[in-house]
């Protein structure tokens, strides 16, 4: 007798290409299907390994992350990274083609929306493939017919159910999400919050990068990673996880409310000593740059760290570059730089050991 499947909890996510039905009706089928395949490949690549792809559903991708796999920041970052990658791919396809068929001309009309819900599901093997079933699975799919986009006047967005935000302790007001209530047949009222990804993309295109290159850095070192860059990113950026491989840090106090992103300020406690940490640039799963003002130096002097992740190599790598600016930094580096590098290197080795021994399931 086949063993009964057990009920699990986790985060359910559907990514749905906006406007594809109208696009398909107005374009040449062969070209339209090629564009869809290209965009779905781009989209799916941004979901893994944070989320596991359950299946492709026409112009949508349904995925899930079991309980304990994702943190609040990781969910938000995965959605935004996926949306930015999708919009970049749309732009690149549009710029690269000289074809004047409808399928190519109408590419800019496409967009992307996400629906995220935390709930329960049962994973069953049906006809040799895994199928997720349960009322919460039905709910997240029914949300694909949400009127949030038309009501708010946006085509690119992420809709998070209130249950999801409550489960992960995410404050929608601080993040600037719009409250929205959906009335679904046979389900009832679903309270949710919507992130305007179109506006986030416009900001992303305009903002400057803060990034240490090998030429800019006073010191750099590259390590091979035993895990994906997404998992490594989570352990480098999550405050609780940082405590596991940075023994000199005794606590974190986030000074800016909401999610960690560009502009966030943290207080890193080293016993009775407090070090102020500014997030100067935050590009999830690619790189992050942190600035540390030099407390006793002239105003404007700082030390800078850039963590650079590369997933195109096998194995993936993480490069740390350290630099700074000002006479105060130069004097500090000359006196304490060598000792600082020993601490940095030892912490990196602790991180790699931690990642090497993570549970596989």
Architecture overview:
This protein has 361 residues and is of the alpha+beta class. The chain has two domains: 7-205, Nucleotide cyclase, GGDEF domain (Alpha-Beta Plaits); 208-356, Alpha-D-Glucose-1,6-Bisphosphate, Chain A, domain 4 (2-Layer Sandwich). Helices cover 37% and strands 33% of the residues. The chain contains twelve helices and 15 strands. Strands 1, 2, 3, 4, 5, 6, 7 and 8 form an eight-stranded mixed beta sheet that branches. α3 crosses α9 (197-206) and α10 (229-237) packs across α11 (239-245). The chain is globular. The two termini are 25 Å apart. The model has no long low-confidence stretch (mean pLDDT 88).
In a few lines, what is going on in this structure?
The protein is α+β, with helices and mostly antiparallel strands and 361 residues long.
CATH superfamily of the largest domain: Nucleotide cyclase, GGDEF domain
Provide the CATH topology of the largest domain.
Alpha-Beta Plaits
User: Mean pLDDT, nearest integer?
Assistant: 88
Q: Identify low-pLDDT runs.
A: none
Rg, rounded, reads 23 Å
Quote the beta fraction: 25-35%
Helix content: 25-40%
**Strands, total number:** 15
Largest sheet: 8 strands, mixed
Name the CATH class of the largest domain: Alpha Beta
Features:
361 residues, alpha+beta, Alpha-Beta Plaits, Alpha-D-Glucose-1,6-Bisphosphate, Chain A, domain 4, 2 domains, eight-stranded mixed β-sheet, seven-stranded antiparallel β-sheet, 15 strands, globular
